[in-house]
C-alpha cells in the first residue's frame, strides 16, 4: 500500500483513511483514522456525527449497532486484541453477541463523545471488512426462456462438434442452460435483515422500471457472441450479446438505474461507469479437471485454464440463440437452484 495514497472509505458521506497496521492469520488488524470535518474529531457532549441513537442512561451513555454476526470476529480481533484496543482508546465498553448469533453490538461509556468515537471506529472496521466478503446475491435479468435455452443447447452441441479440438474447449466450461442470465450487479448480504432490506429497495425501483418499460414486457433478441479479454486465443469468458428488438437502450437504462439506486443505499459498490450487459455462455471458472495433470500439480487451485476461442468466434459470430419477452428483474441468490433450475429468487419486480 502506498502510504502517501491510502485507501479511503466513505461511510454515510464521511471519508476515512484506512491504515493497515498488521495482518495475522485470518484477522487483519486495521487502524483507521478519521478525515472528516474538524468539528467531528472532538465531539462535544451533546454532539455526534453518527446517525445512530445514543441513549443516556443512569450510568452514562449507550448505543446499539446492528452488525452481521459474520463480521464480529473482525471487531473482536485475535484473542480479543482489537476490541480491547478500541475500548482502551475510546474509554468505552463494547459488548458483542456470541459468534453466529445475530444481534446488536452494544457500546457503553461515561461520556457521549466517547461512545460516538467508538461507534465511528466500529463502523469503519465493519465497512472495511464487509468489502472483503464474497458476494451472496446479484440482481439479474433471466435469459432462461425455453426458446433461448434451446438455442443455447444447439450452440453448445455445434461448438463441441466443430471446435472441441481447440485448446481448452470442452463440455464443462459451458453455462447451465437453466441459469442463463444477465448480471446487473452483485451484493454481499450477510444476514436475513440485509436480504429483506435489499428486497425492499428492489420494490422501490418498480416505479422507474415501469416508466422505462411502459408497463410492458421487453422484447429481446439474443444474437452474436463476444469475448472479454484482449486475446481471442486465451479466453476465460465468452458471452452472448443481448439487445432490445426495437433498438432502444431501455435494457441498459434500466440496469444502470438499478445499480445507481443500490449504490446510493450502500448495498452495492461501484465497479464500472455503466453496466456491461452480457449473457455468459462459456466460463473457465466452470471447468472440471479431474485428470492426472491436475493431481500431478500442473494446475493449482485458483488458476484458470483459458481456451482458444478463435474458431468459435469465426464460425458463430452471428449465432442466433433466440428471442423472448423479458418481464422481471430478480434478486438472485448465489450458489442456489429453484424448482425451474434457475437461481433461487429472494425478491423480484415484474415489468407488467
Describe the structure in your own words.
The strands form 4 sheets. The chain has a 4-stranded antiparallel beta sheet, covered by helices on one side. A 4-stranded antiparallel beta sheet has the order 9-8-14-15, with helices on one face. Strands 12-11-10-13 form a 4-stranded antiparallel beta sheet. Helices cover 28% and strands 28% of the residues. Helix 2 packs antiparallel against helix 3. The model is unreliable at 21-50 and 290-301 (pLDDT under 50). The chain is built from 9 helices and 15 strands. The chain is elongated.
Number of contiguous helices: 9
Largest sheet: 4 strands, antiparallel
Number of strands: 15
Query: Measured on Cα atoms, how large is the radius of gyration?
Result: 25 Å
The strands making up the biggest β-sheet line up spatially as 4-5-7-6
Structural class assignment: alpha+beta
Span of the ends, CA to CA: 49 Å
Amino acid at each position: 500500500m502506498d502510504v502517501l495514497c491510502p485507501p479511503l472509505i466513505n461511510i454515510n458521506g464521511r471519508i476515512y483513511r484506512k491504515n493497515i497496521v498488521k495482518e495475522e492469520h485470518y484477522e487483519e488488524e486495521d487502524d483507521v483514522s478519521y478525515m472528516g470535518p474538524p468539528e467531528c474529531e472532538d465531539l462535544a457532549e451533546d454532539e455526534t456525527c453518527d446517525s445512530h441513537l445514543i441513549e443516556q442512561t443512569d450510568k452514562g451513555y449507550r448505543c446499539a449497532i446492528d452488525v452481521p454476526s459474520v463480521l464480529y470476529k473482525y471487531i473482536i480481533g485475535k484473542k480479543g486484541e482489537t476490541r480491547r484496543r478500541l475500548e482502551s482508546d475510546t474509554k468505552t465498553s463494547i459488548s458483542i453477541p456470541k459468534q453466529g448469533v445475530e444481534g446488536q453490538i452494544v457500546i457503553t461509556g461515561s461520556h457521549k463523545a466517547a461512545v460516538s468515537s467508538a461507534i465511528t471506529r466500529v463502523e469503519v472496521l465493519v465497512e472495511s471488512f464487509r468489502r472483503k466478503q464474497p458476494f451472496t446475491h446479484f440482481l439479474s435479468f433471466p435469459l432462461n426462456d425455453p426458446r433461448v435455452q434451446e438455442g443455447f443447447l444447439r450452440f453448445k452441441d455445434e461448438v463441441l462438434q466443430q471446435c472441441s479440438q481447440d485448446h481448452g474447449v470442452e463440455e464443462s466450461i459451458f453455462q447451465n442452460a437453466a441459469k442463463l442470465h444477465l448480471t446487473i450487479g452483485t451484493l454481499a448480504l450477510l444476514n436475513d435483515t440485509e436480504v429483506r432490506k435489499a428486497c425492499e429497495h428492489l420494490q422501490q425501483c418498480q416505479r422507474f422500471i415501469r416508466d422505462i418499460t411502459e408497463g410492458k414486457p421487453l422484447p429481446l433478441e439474443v444474437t452474436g457472441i463476444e469475448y472479454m479479454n484482449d486475446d481471442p486465443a486465451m479466453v476465460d469468458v465468452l458471452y452472448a450479446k443481448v439487445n432490445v428488438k426495437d433498438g432502444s437502450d431501455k435494457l441498459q437504462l434500466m440496469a444502470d438505474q438499478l445499480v445507481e439506486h443500490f449504490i446510493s443505499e450502500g448495498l452495492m459498490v461501484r465497479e464500472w461507469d455503466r453496466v456491461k450487459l452480457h449473457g455468459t455462455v462459456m466460463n473457465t471458472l466452470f471447468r472440471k479437471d479431474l485428470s492426472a495433470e491436475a493431481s500431478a500439480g500442473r494446475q493449482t487451485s485458483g488458476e484458470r485454464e483459458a481456451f482458444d476461442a478463435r474458431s468459435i468466434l469465426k464460425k458463430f459470430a452471428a449465432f442466433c440463440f433466440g428471442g423472448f419477452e423479458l418481464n422481471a428483474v430478480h434478486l438472485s441468490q448465489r450458489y442456489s437452484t429453484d424448482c425451474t433450475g434457475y437461481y433461487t429468487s429472494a425478491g423480484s419486480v415484474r415489468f407488467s
